[in-house]
């Protein structure tokens, strides 16, 4: 264990966001100025945030920001247990009419 706390990379924190499921989202480049020659469709597409596809880079950014890993959200295990219980209950309901 390091004796000193790791610090969040502030530049990364300002440019990227980690979603609840661990996806890394960022703003597209090329939309801040010199847009007069671009089509409206292109400008609208540049407005929307985009999910980072490269998983290795996304993992590195999550580590720099000290955020959750993919699929390991705060309540991931509780939600998984609840989903399994719900599925079991549904299967139990379906099995009863077939037995009658």
Please provide a brief summary of the model.
This is Large ribosomal subunit protein bL35. The chain has 100 residues and is mainly α.
Overview of the molecule:
This is Large ribosomal subunit protein bL35. One of its GO terms (cellular component) is cytosolic large ribosomal subunit. Belongs to the bacterial ribosomal protein bL35 family. GO terms for molecular function: structural constituent of ribosome. Keywords: Ribonucleoprotein, Ribosomal protein. This protein has helices at 10-15, 40-47, 55-65, 76-99; strands spanning 16-18, 24-26, 50-51. By secondary structure, the protein is mainly alpha-helical. The chain has two domains: 1-69, Factor Xa Inhibitor (Irregular); 72-100. Strands 1-2-3 form a three-stranded antiparallel β-sheet. β1 and β2 form a beta hairpin. The chain is flat, with a radius of gyration of 22 Å. The termini are far apart.
Write the layout of secondary structure elements.
Layout lengths: L9 H6 E3 L5 E3 L13 H8 L2 E2 L3 H11 L10 H24 L1
Antiparallel strand pairs: 1-2, 2-3
GO molecular function: structural constituent of ribosome
Pfam families: Ribosomal_L35p
Keywords: Ribonucleoprotein, Ribosomal protein
| Strand line-up of the largest beta sheet | 1-2-3
Q: Give average pLDDT, whole number.
A: 78
| Class by alpha and beta content | mainly alpha
- Output the number of helix runs: 4
The count of domains is 2
Mind summarizing the main beta sheet? 3 strands, antiparallel
Q: Element order, helices and strands?
A: HEEHEHH
Q: What is the correct CATH architecture of the largest domain?
A: Irregular
Radius of gyration based on Cα positions: 22 Å
